Amino acid sequence: MRPACIFIERDGGTLYCTVLFFSPEGTLLGKHRKLMPTAAERLVWGFGDGSTLTVLDTPIGRVGAVICWENYMPLLRTAMYAKGIQIYCAPTADDRDSWLSSMRHIALEGRCFVLSACQYLTRADCPDDYAAAQGNDPNTVLMRGGSAIISPLGAVLAGPHFDGETILTADLDLSDITRGKYDFDATGHYARPDVFQLTINEKPMQPVVVKIGSDMAKSGEP
Prior knowledge:
Blueprint: E1 2-11, E2 14-22, E3 28-33, E4 55-58, E5 61-65, H1 74-82, E6 87-92, H2 98-110, E7 113-118, E8 120-122, E9 141-144, E10 147-150, E11 156-161, H3 175-180, H4 214-219
């Protein structure tokens, strides 16, 4: 299985930053639309809703994805932990040193494996008419990568890699998740539902809802 691939999805006249999940045969298994476009992304991308907070049962474990700065949304992370995510994919455009600390925190907090992917991009990889703020020297690095694989106890298993394109690999033992949750399970025995509760709306939020016949009768509308 290819755990997660990020695309720009078009629905009608709106673009969304979307992760798609594919089987080894190329079958689309599910998707996640970014809930909260960041900064100037809001000029281009639409907002996702709770209907695509996807965690999939697969032969390699329960897989889901949280995109870039969505990872700084504590309640979104909590929702994914509650779904039993085991392989937490975190595609990002954040190549700062601080990103690795965030990924280690999430792995430790969620007791899950975190696979974070950030592209390595040079000016030569972009179209000629792209006005790069960093300059037009083809060798200029626009994004330096930093992909990494993290264990459920926050150990760095591979990466971060900043020296060009690469493929990172690591052996993942899902039993490490069970062992890790013996002493901490954020949405299980370490939760306090008598004090804190999270309510998630997973209903698709459509701007136009059509009701016909029996549906109108059930709703009490004339």
